[in-house]
Write a structure and sequence with these properties.
79 residues; alpha+beta; Alpha-Beta Plaits; globular
Length: 79
């Protein structure tokens, strides 16, 4: 894992389930956007605590927010 230069991280989306956050992180990584998941689940033994403390937060660098939202948002329906 490479060291990340100091950057401001921004929450782009929050999830109730860890697998959802991991899936979204994978999609961002596939688009060459580095992403991180922040949660408080006591090392995985207390997932209910993560939900009580705001869920699983998906973070990206501030400069990647627009691109990340473009990856995570579903395509718009055509009329």
């Amino acid at each position: 894992m490479r060291e990340m230069p100091e950057a401001k991280l921004v929450v782009v989306q929050t999830f109730a389930e860890q697998w959802e956050a991991e899936l979204a992180k994978s999609a961002l990584n596939g688009a060459c956007i580095e992403a991180f998941i922040q949660s408080d689940s006591l090392g995985g033994i207390g997932p209910h605590i993560a939900l009580a403390t705001g869920g699983y937060k998906l973070l990206v660098r501030e400069e990647d927010v627009a691109a990340a939202r473009g990856v995570l948002e579903p395509p718009k329906k055509r009329a």
